[in-house]
Design a protein that fits this description.
Largest sheet: 8 strands, mixed
Pfam families: F420_oxidored, P5CR_dimer
Strand content: 5-15%
Catalytic activity: L-proline + NADP(+) = (S)-1-pyrroline-5-carboxylate + NADPH + 2 H(+); L-proline + NAD(+) = (S)-1-pyrroline-5-carboxylate + NADH + 2 H(+)
Bound molecules: 1,4-dihydronicotinamide adenine dinucleotide, (2S)-3,4-dihydro-2H-pyrrole-2-carboxylic acid
CATH class of the largest domain: Alpha Beta
Helix content: 55-70%
Distance between the termini: 35 Å
Shape: elongated
CATH superfamily of the largest domain: NAD(P)-binding Rossmann-like Domain
Strand order of the largest sheet: 3-2-1-4-5-6-7-8
CATH topology of the largest domain: Rossmann fold
Number of helices: 13
Number of domains: 2
InterPro entries: 6-PGluconate_DH-like_C_sf, NAD(P)-bd_dom_sf, P5C_Rdtase_cat_N, P5CR-like_CS, P5CR_dimer, Pyrroline-COOH_reductase
Protein name: Pyrroline-5-carboxylate reductase
Order of helices and strands: EHEHEHEHHEHEEHEHHHHHH
CATH architecture of the largest domain: 3-Layer(aba) Sandwich
Family: Belongs to the pyrroline-5-carboxylate reductase family.
Structural class: alpha/beta
Length: 272
Amino acid sequence: MSQIAFIGGGNMATSIIGGLVKGGDVKASMIHVSDPGAEQRARLSKDFGINVHENNLDAIAKADVVILAVKPQVMKDVLQPLQATLSSRQPLLISIAAGISMDSLASWSGCKALVRCMPNTPALLGRGATGLFASAAVSIDQRNQADSLLSAVGLTVWVKNESEIDAVTAVSGSGPAYYFLLMEAMIAAGQKLGLSKETATRLTLQTAAGAAEMALKSDVDPAELRRRVTSPGGTTERAIATFEAAHLRDIVDAALKAANDRGAELSQQLGD
Ligand SMILES: NC(=O)C1=CN([C@@H]2O[C@H](COP(=O)(O)OP(=O)(O)OC[C@H]3O[C@@H](n4cnc5c(N)ncnc54)[C@H](O)[C@@H]3O)[C@@H](O)[C@H]2O)C=CC1
Ligand SMILES: O=C(O)[C@@H]1CCC=N1
């Protein structure tokens, strides 16, 4: 069985580790995590019974797969001290960082088999969505390994071009935040209409979950599901007309383009 090392034990690593341990596909004893935060390490050790390390080199010492889960801004500084070990051991290197290119990962790590992927936080519940892209040096076995690690925490989708990872980031990596923003706005609007905060919150969250579940299970697309809620001359029609008049689709288009472009900009700024 492969040893898996996470460099960085923050929000995303915790989500993925939680999913892996809960799913039972990977033994806790096979998972190593390094993080400079003592509290972070204590929490990971207590919650999941995995191996924790202060030093990144200790985490990767026997790893077959190394998952990079640090912020993009520190990636170069994190990888350079690991380069000698990584280039001699040649583990499969999986980066979940937004906006760090394959070229940068290869030159900073010395690894050849690289996977860039973009998960999202619902991975914590096993309901994540991850887009992945592999370098040419990734073997079929390694690709399957990356797929099974990330599919333990939800849906996986492979893309053919590296640039598509920025689009995946814009749609699903950042996506949960868009839905949370809409929830915040609906809860506030419900309160203005006279509901208590608790009632507005419970109704909003259950509606979001129900709508998502319907869209996932339905054999028709979201546009048709929307039409089925919208009675002619009724209440939904007024609300949808208000969204359309405020150019909601253009706003979503611009927001996702901004996220996509920020991914590309980060690659430029943080690359060599
Ligand atoms: N938060 C999200 O929804 C998503 C984040 N990502 C990507 O995941 C990566 C991590 O993001 P988060 O988990 O949100 O950040 P985070 O800040 O929660 O976690 C980063 C962790 O790295 C640790 N760290 C800092 N310096 C380190 C070092 N030198 N060596 C080892 N560990 C170090 C920090 O102590 C922290 O625990 C980022 O690159 C981000 O682009 C990807 C998909 C979704
Ligand atoms: O906001 C970010 O940069 C990261 C990547 C996707 C979600 N969070």
